[in-house]
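Hey,
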Amino acid sequence: MIDLQLTDKKHDEERQGEALLLETPKKGDGRKLYIESYGCQMNFADSEIVASILADTGFETTGDYHQADVIFINTCSIRENAETRVRNRLSQFGVEKKRNPKLIVGVLGCMAERLKAKFLEEEKLVDVVVGPDAYRDLPGLISQVEEGHKAVNVILSREETYADVSPVRLNSNGITAFVTIMRGCDNMCSFCVVPFTRGRERSRDPFSIINECKDLFESGYREVTLLGQNVDSYHWTKPKANQVVTNDLADEMNTLTGDALLEALTNKTDLPGTRRNEHAIAEEGSMNFAQLLALVAEISPDLRVRFSTSHPKDITDEVLYTIAKYDNICNYIHLP
């Protein structure tokens, strides 16, 4: 029997409002970005994506907002306390903006998505309001503000997974890292705003996930947490016949995990870690969460694997069998 541990929220709560920094801050005269995160682990992972996108345009992170050219707060709409803290924090940043009128203040994430342009009216000091699917547009939105305009992009996407963005690791201990495998949620629970603030479910392609996990392991990380609003709903399908799939992609499928991944995606074969039954046979050209979990675990027995968050109606026996088979998958299920 699997001994499933309960989630410890202590570390999660301690990180609320944390100012995120690059592992090894660059030294130079680049513009300074200060970013705080509130809410779930996904928000902290998204902040790493934001930092990566802006690093490509010359931004460096700073832990002192007095030194910042741009201040972003990555917000949460699930926790009432988090929204209250964000409002209070914006008031503090307002004092800094009076001292430095060129300072750009932006609100990112779920609270931005929920309130949208209303935020610009309620919080006069806010220059940028950006939802979780529009972070690629941040460089352009910052340019709009520098030209004297307010900037808003809260359009939700059916495709965006940021699969091609290599997140920078912020405030990292060099041992553990988050890897986002999917975004959004299709479970319209009456108590939850996530489908309306993060959009519908879409799964990131497994090649980029495995590649990121391998890179982390080779860089010295020894634990990854696979993230999603509902990881048990992960279901990736390969491009349709009328979509272009290059030979480079096929080569990458081979190099990432050997022939197992390519074989599983092109034929109806079992994947490592799955039991042979009617649920364990891979649909042609698709991959579910249990199969992805097995492939991540096979990167190395020295790589510990966790995942968050699960939904009790969507978790499968196949996932439990996979956890039981691999010693490096932690006996730990995070339920909402």
